[in-house]
Write a structure and sequence with these properties.
Elements (H helix, E strand, L loop, with lengths): L8 E6 L4 E7 L6 E4 L10 H6 L6 E4 L16 H14 L5 E6 L1 H12 L4 E7 L7 H13 L2 E2 L2 H6 L9 H11 E3 L5 E3 L3 H10 L14 E6 L7 H10 L4 E5 L5 H4 L1 H13 L2
Parallel strand pairs: 3-4, 3-5, 5-6, 6-10, 10-11
Antiparallel strand pairs: 1-2, 2-4, 7-9, 8-9
Helix pairs in contact: 4-7
Amino acid sequence: MTAFKRPARSVRIPLPQLGLHWLDWPGQGTPIVLLHPNRTNARVWDFVVEHSALPNRFLAPDARGQGLSDYPAEGYGYDDYLDDLRACFDALDLGPVHLVGAATGGNLALLLATQDPARVASLTVVDPGLSLDPAISHAVREQMVREFSFGSLDEARARMPFSDHWSDGMKDHYSRHSFRSLAAGRVEWRYFPPGVVATEAMLEAPIWDCIDVRCPTLVVRGTRSAVFPRTTMDRLCASIPGARSAEVEADHRVSQDNPQALAALLDGFIGRR
């Protein structure tokens, strides 16, 4: 078990239709909110926060249908996720935040910064799923259903997507928090398959016309990412006035492939705000 110098506490936020789980790392100054990729949970950020030198409070939700949040039968579109974030921001009494979103969380961060600019002091987008290649989307959706349950935790740990470059500590930590135990030693992912499949399919639809970000913005790409090619990164930066870009030696899951490098980028970017 990894012993973090800066552990998070769990917070449950009851909303009218569901309850959402958040991680909360205490700190001071403008809060930093971290949005995870589809079919994952807030634990993708533990090592990034651990490596960060920022004194700020960090917060990270488990999106609906994922992690320790509730799994409603429907409601897995952009508006549903954004309404959840707004309600939680209000429940937590958050003013403007430094918003960081990875993959699907990056899409949500772009849309929230566009629609609610008063809530976002700065924006960091990490390998978002913009104009996702339908072939990639189809393969991922099939995998979400086909590789949902496993005969043992060891098998599940060995089959985690995008984990080829993770440290053993990352694999152990994330697998411990991302699977629920079933009978006879079997385990299954902590996500709702119909919900994450619907969300993945949604990423194929372009949202370029919906992006109008005016706050300070950093766009980050994993150098080995097929999800967010450099041409797409350049297009996104060109659409946001003054946006900066950076690449990290990583695949699509930058926060888990190379948490030290991502933390250093956040420290430099947010630390100057």
